[in-house]
Amino acid sequence: MGNSSRVTEFILRGLTDDPHLQLILFVTFFILYAITLLGNAGMIALIWISPQLHTPMYFFLTHLSFVDICCSSAITPQFLCHLLKEKKDISFVGCFTQIYFYGALSTAECFLLAIMAYDRYVAICHPLVYLVIMSQLKCVQLVVISYIIGLLHSLVHIIPASRLFFCGSNIIKNFFCEGPALLQLACSDISLNNLLKLVFIGFTLIATILAILTSYIYVLITILKMHSAKARRKAFSTCTSHLMVITIFYGGLAFVYAQPGKSHYTNQIASVLYVIVTPMFNPLIYSLRNQEVKVAFRKILGEKVALLFYTKH
């Protein structure tokens, strides 16, 4: 980072400069962030205290909710602060730290979603040996590997980026430190950075998407072979929530990064939807569409109401 001493901070281009609109946006995104934290933390707590949810699928869902909390918290709090500030600055080190952790968590989420697809494949295609294959040790190992890959993958990009020379404009055309937007400000050659981005991010996306598609192709084949309509409905119901989460995650990712020539404003709106809104949906999807989660929630709620009634009388 010593080579980049000419730039000590970056200025983030906010969504708007209108103070009244900034206040409205602050209230809106503060509510969305609160829903994200409460929804995901509530999902973690519900799975933790409900014995019927102590299965591999919900163990992975716990970590998916944890990653969503961390992803949102890596960016949203500072974005909210900037909506109340005239100068939307971030230090050089702070910018690279934000990029590193958001990149690591996003990569970990890619692999968690692939692991959850594999979990559904084992549960539906090999139900008799499901708990043997997806043992507690195996689940922990898969989650740890996801986190390690995320941390290492982000490190591969952040170290070469931190060695770039920044000597001109320090205005990042987004409301957070986004990797591609930051690279556009570099005065030195970024061909290595682009190559690393193409190879490693491309490999991550292709590998996880292929794992998800392969798992669900086998799941679909197995479901179609089932003779019982009730068994088919039950199998489909265990997959629909995860498929919706995958669609939102990769759909949002494609919407943000796979549209060349987007305007600055369109890119910011897309980033808001992907970075701030998407993490809010996962607990809502699983709580509204998953019967086991709804039953566990009603049971816990019933116990709390009964305890309150008993204490009161």
UniProtKB/TrEMBL annotation:
| The UniProt record lists the keyword Transmembrane | yes
What PROSITE patterns would the database entry show? G_PROTEIN_RECEP_F1_1 (PS00237), G_PROTEIN_RECEP_F1_2 (PS50262)
Q: Which gene encodes it?
A: LOC106543779
**SUPFAM superfamilies cross-referenced by the UniProt entry:** Family A G protein-coupled receptor-like
| InterPro entries documented for this protein | GPCR_Rhodpsn, GPCR_Rhodpsn_7TM, Olfact_rcpt
**UniProt membrane topology term:** Multi-pass membrane protein
Major place of residence: membrane
Recorded protein name is: Olfactory receptor
List the keywords (alphabetical): Cell membrane, G-protein coupled receptor, Membrane, Olfaction, Receptor, Sensory transduction, Transducer, Transmembrane, Transmembrane helix
Q: Which organism is it from?
A: Thamnophis sirtalis
